[in-house]
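During the no-cost extension, the postdoctoral fellow (Dr. R.K.) reprocessed legacy sequence entries with the updated structure-token encoder. One reprocessed record is reproduced below for audit purposes.
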Amino acid sequence: MENKQISVVVDRRVLPEKMDIFKGYMKSIIDASSKFPGYLGGDVINPEESNRYIIIFRFASQKELDNWTNSKERQLWVDKIDQVVEKTTKMISLTGLETWFSVSKSNDFVPPPKYKMAIVTYLAIAPTITVVNLLFSNFLNFLNFIPKHLLIFVTSPFMVILMTYLVMPMMTKLFAKYLYGVKKNS
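Re-encoded structure tokens follow.
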């Protein structure tokens, strides 16, 4: 089995009178999942401030996601959550860069238009490159034995990690309304 990062996007419609209970359960299930090996993050988004919630869990690999998915602890929380939602859960697994833009307003989790993804990615990557270069400038000067055109191989891994785990999840939340016409739930 390949060791690729995987994101699971879950779509839930909460019974209006059970919203507060659901929010408590979501905090608890994300907290529980965060204790499992390979957990990379989780988000809860409430499109259009409705009773619809989109929950994202990110794990380092399919195996680690399966460990969480098949755990008794997860099943306990899912059983509780099932008591406060209207309909069957919709769930989709994503790998690769499309997980940067994995949440959508539609029921099919269609990513936003490519031009919007390009704009948000540019707005994320330009400042990130600047900051990484400033932070690494002394270190890069220390590596003067490496030809300048090869230094990209030193900074690129940090850029990819920052973009995947910190910057793009933050930018997707910040620009949710622009990308999807939705607002992130606080």
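Residues 104-108 have pLDDT under 50 and may be disordered. The domain at 6-110 is CATH 3.30.70.100 (Alpha-Beta Plaits). The remaining legacy entries will be reprocessed before the final report is submitted.
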